[in-house]
Specification:
238 residues, elongated, two-stranded antiparallel sheet, 70% helix, 3-stranded antiparallel β-sheet, mainly alpha
Length: 238
């Protein structure tokens, strides 16, 4: 498995991930806008019938203020729900803080909420009322994530993913630092955490591994590469 071939595979995978992110961005934005419109419409009807009977314009404006206020509050609290997770690693007596980005599963869960049986009726009602704003906030987060994925250091991240694939097991952060001392480890691990299929393990130290699906994809790709190289050698021999 040549480095250059793996870099090309990684770049292709990165492109696929970006297309998926663009799809998520469009989906969340459209759903958020539609949901916000219907929420505003409900607020308008309630305000017009029950509180502001004299002016439809005022009722519409107040409804917009309520929706906008909820959106602002959701946006301000976004780092609480979708902020990086911080982990500390002790390497040769110095502490390094590693930032790990949330997975896209966490983003979708934030956007649509969780089914939590422990919540009372009021908490569930508030969660439903905030759904349109959470969809838009999630879309804004995905838009930022697209830019972050686009700016990752391709070769450095590919080297780490390649190491994880060759080990096929958890690899401690200390081992990565030992094997790749020239890397900006803090930035590179943050970039790697954006790559779908890389998981961070925090039990008994901080380590990295690959999901079974990504391992299968890489194994299949490697077999195709080996087959192509063997076919090329056979043609050259003939």
């Amino acid at each position: 498995m040549k480095k250059e071939d793996f870099y090309r595979w990684f770049e292709g995978r990165k492109g696929t991930q970006q297309r998926i992110l663009y799809g998520a961005l469009i989906t969340l934005t459209l759903m958020g806008l539609i949901a916000c419109f219907f929420e505003w419409l409900i607020f308008f009807v309630i305000l017009k019938i029950g509180f502001i009977k004299s002016s439809a314009i005022l009722a519409a404006f107040v409804g917009m203020l309520i929706s906008g206020g909820v959106l602002l509050g959701s946006w301000l609290r976004l780092p609480v729900h979708l902020g990086d997770t911080k982990h500390e690693v002790d390497v040769d007596g110095r502490v390094i803080e590693i930032a790990v980005a949330p997975t896209m599963t966490a983003v979708w869960t934030y956007a649509f909420g969780t089914i939590d049986s422990d919540r009372n009726f009021a908490e569930r009602l508030i969660a439903w009322l905030c759904l349109p704003q959470r969809l838009l906030c999630a879309a804004w987060y995905v838009w930022k994530r697209v830019g972050q994925v686009n700016s990752i250091h391709l070769e450095a991240c590919a080297d780490i993913v390649r190491m994880l694939f060759r080990k096929a097991e958890r690899v401690e952060v200390e081992t990565i630092i030992e094997k790749k001392p020239s890397l900006n480890i803090v930035r590179t691990l943050r970039d790697v955490s954006l790559f779908d299929g890389v998981i961070f393990l925090t039990r008994k130290g901080v380590a990295l591994s690959l999901t079974g699906r990504l391992l299968d994809d890489l194994t299949e790709w490697k077999a195709q590469q080996t087959s192509a190289e063997f076919s090329g050698d056979q043609q050259g021999f003939d």
